[in-house]
Structures are given as C-alpha cells and as structure tokens.
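Q: I'm teaching a short session on how sequence maps to structure, and I want students to see two examples side by side rather than one. Could you give me a first protein with its sequence written out and its structure tokens following it? Keep the formatting plain so it prints cleanly on a handout.
A: Of course. Example one:
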Amino acid sequence: MVDMYIMNIHIKTFASVRDICGFDNITMELPDGASVKDAVSCLSEKNPELGTKIDILLFAINEEYRAVDARLQDNDVLAIFPPVSGG
C-alpha cells in the first residue's frame, strides 16, 4: 500500500481570474509536493479558460511572487492574478 499525503492549499483569485473561476477564495486538497501548475491544472478541469492563460498569469505563494513550477506546502496561500498593465 502506498501512503499518499494530502495537503490543503488556500487559493485566492483576483480580477479576471476571479471572473473565470467564479470564486474569491477556496481551499483545495492536493497531493504532497504539488506545484502551482498542478493547482492550476486542477482548477482548469472546471474552468478550462484558466488553463489557456497559464503562461500569462502571475502567482504568489504566501504573498511572495513565484514561478509556475514552484512547489506548494500544506496550508500555503496561492494567489492567482491576471497580467498587470498600465502606464
């Protein structure tokens, strides 16, 4: 029997990402060692448009900007932002 550890990740969405996903905050269970990309892939199952934008989205783990391949830990807060523009 293989032991699989599960971790809880708290996800916050902002602006157009919130519109796509339909929520501000959720808690998601992911396998131990999952990455930001794994979390977005899970969210994309119900929100396919999100998956098409993964290359332009911004991510923060516990209020620190991180890359899509960053690993998550139990009880991390993952924030997902659309690209920022302005002048």
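Q: Perfect. Now a second example for contrast.
A: Example two:
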Amino acid sequence: MPKKRGMKISRFPFIVSGLLTALAYPPLNLWLIAWFSLVPLLWKARNLTFWMAFRRGWWGGLIFNAVLLYWIALNSGTDHFTAIASCLGLVLVLSLYWALFTAVWSFLFRRWGILGALFLPAVWVGLEVVKNAPEIAFPWLELGLTQIQLLPVAQLAELGGIRFVSAWVLSANVMILLLWQGKRTAGFTVLTLLLFGGIWGWYRIYHLPPAGPRITAVIVQGNVDPSVKWHEDPDSSLSVYIALTSQALQSDSADIVVWPETAVPVYLAHQMKYQMQLRKLASNSHTAILTGALHYEFDSNAKHNPRRFNSAFFFPENGSPPLRYDKISLVPFGERVPFQKWFPRLGELNFGQAEFTAGNHYSVFDLGRNVKVSAQICYESVFGDQTRRFVLEGARVLCNLTNDGWYGRSAGPYQHAALVRFSCIETRCPLLRAANTGISLVADRSGRIVKSLPLLSRGTLWAQVESGGNAPTFYVKHGEIIPIALLLLGCASVILSFGRKPKEMIDR
C-alpha cells in the first residue's frame, strides 16, 4: 500500500506540468505560464530510468491532452460512441509524445548532465514534426500556440513557422532549469537568445515587408445549426446568407464576400438554381463571393460511385461561372480513412465518417489589382506548409472557410481561431475567416485581430486590410527547414549520447 501511494505521489509533478501547460492555451490564454510549466516535469524526470520517465511523462501528456481536447467527444456530427472513442483514442496516442520527450530527457541527463537540457528544444520540436507526418497529421496543440496573444514572440513564426515559436517556449523552461541548477553561463546565454527573439519580434511588427493593395472584405457568419441544415430545404440556409450579404452591401460594394464551409448545402456545380442565385448576387453587388459547398464528379474508374469533394466556389463580380477549389487536407477518420494511397481497401471501412476525395491543386482566385485569394477549408488552414504553397501560387490574401458548429461553446472553436492567425505571420498575408457559428475574424499581416464576431452569433464583418506584398518570407521560401533542422539536431544529440560521456559536461 505505501508503495502504491508513493507511485501516485511521484506522478504529481508530471500531472502539474500537464495541467499548467494546458492553462496557457486558448481559451484561457495564460501564456506566461507556458514559460515555466514544464519545469516540474524536467526536474523530477532527471534521475528516472528511461521507462519510468516514459510512464510518468505519459501521465502529464494525458492530463494535458484531455483538458484541451475534450471537445472532440462533443462532436454532434456523429454518434456518441464514435465521438467519445475518437476523443479517447486521440488523447491516448498524443500522450505518447509527452512520454517519449520525458524519457529522452532522462536519458540525456544521465549522459550529458544538466547541460543536456540545451538539446531539449530540438527534441520537442522534432517530436512535433514527427507528430504531423502526412496522412495522420494533427497540428493542433503545438507549444507555440500558447504565445499567440504575445505577438512579439509569435512573430518568430515568420522564420520557422509555429514550431519555431515552440522552440522559444521550451527554451524559456530550459533557461529556468539551468539557472535553478546554478548554470549561470548557460542560463544567461539562453536568456539572451530569448530576449533577442522577443525584441526582434516587437521590431518586426512595426517594420513589416511592403504590402500590396488594400482590399475591402465582408465576412458573413450565418450561425445556422449544422445538425439540421442538411435535413431542411437548402433555401433555408442560403436565404440567411443572401439576406445578410445584401444588407451589408446595400450602401457600397466590397472586393470580396466570404461565406463559411458548406454555407450552401448543395452540390453547387450541378444544381444550377442555386448557382444562378449566387452569380446574380455577385453581379448585382459588383462583389466577388467565396463560399463553401459540396461537389461531385465521375471518372472512368468510378462510373457508378462518384468522387465527392468538400469544396469552395469563387463567384467573380461580373457574374460569370464560378471557379472551384477542392479541399486537400481531409480530417483523418472524419472526412476520409487515412492510408488509402497504399491500401485502397481502407476506403470500404465505415466509421461513421464522410468519405471525401482529396483535391490536388492549390487554386487561387483573382480579385483584380494583382490581388489573389486562397480558400483553405476547415482544419487544413492550420497546416503552415500548405498555406505557403498557396502563397507561392500567388495568393496575397488568405481565406479560411470553416464550420466549428459541431462542437458548440467548447474550447475547440477558440483553439482553431487562434491557430489560423499564425498563417498571417508565416506568410505576411492577411486572413479572412468565415465560420458558420464563429469565431469569424479578420486578422492583419502581424496576426493581430482587426475585427471579429463572437461564438454562436449571427452577423457580418466589414473590414479593410492590406494584402500581402510580393517579397516572400523566409518561411514561405524555405518552409519547415528550421523545424526539420531541429529534428535532426535532436536525433543527433541522442545518437551522440550513446558514445562516451563527455566528462567535462557531467555535472549532476
């Protein structure tokens, strides 16, 4: 009995780290806590064996992920069993990354001493890179997200994406640990680098690259219940968006109106009645319209089973036929069973998910005046490497069409709205985000929110923003090169640790 009690107590510092780190994320946004939240874990894991540290770290990850991802179990778009099972499975799997990080740290400490902590930012970022491998990627709880409210630090994403901000946050924890252990030279060196990054970010906010033309945008948030709109006449949803748009444009036109994901609940390319309504609305208002809708098409290999797409349709202001973008990054097990590229029979499995086909073209749409817009749908907007592909194709304004209404008034919509703001910093392009039930927003090129609509409300946003310029950022040009370099550094630190201990660095 005393032994079991001791084991439970020994988990406490790891659970505390998991809980404290979760508090730094949206919706609470207590960003300062993230600077020291991992110190209890780092301190207590030092003298543990690899597998003991693995188990203790898993408990920290379990609390962290359960607190932040509980909302997946609230998904009203599927049955209760599937929602709970998907949440539980995701939490259990993601906790393994915390476990592995903790175990690697215990190993590094035994080989390198306390100065082995200098490699921890690389180890953490390396695990974030691995976690976001293709087919099963879920880039949702990156440690850098905790700093979205501290814009000077968040600006580091221009260089290495959100995961470079993660390295900054982990370095803050390492700095505290080093100073606590009396390693002043190493601790103050890390502190200097942290301050340099923050000062550079503050300077950068006020010295952004040259902008492109200013555009006027209208964002429409219909707040249509997603659980009932597919069972009603499509006119009931479409009429809401047409009325809100007409009211917003009654006194003046805009460059673009953005509606959310599947705002028009029909196969828009094939149902001409609804397509003509939108073409007429765009022509009469002299304003381009971007909306989400579904699409299907047949090919020679599937004459009786059409390929279905989650798409965005762009209606030019002159009333001509719409252009289309098909969602590329589909939600694993939500919109498509993964690994079908290698095992096609997986497409026959039914977990209650929609079965969409992934698009393969980074479509951008022309607003005139050398301004083009992209249209990322739902959670694919948090993939920085995909966003940069749109910018390389010419996009200078980023649009996110989403429907987070399946998760009600939970933490999910707040986390999603915070994540997409990093795309502004990574690319130095503004963001127009239309979410069916919220949070809709307009963000400028530094990631600052210009205007927003609260969750579960109906209304429109009218805003002007500077479009992105023609000078690509380091991240746009080189993508994830910095996170990948950190991954390689983390792997090298572990490999070198198998060799002879460098005696001058062993300082337990």
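Q: What should students look for in example two?
A: Point them to this: The longest helix spans residues 80-112. Also worth mentioning: Confidence is low (pLDDT under 50) at residues 503-508.
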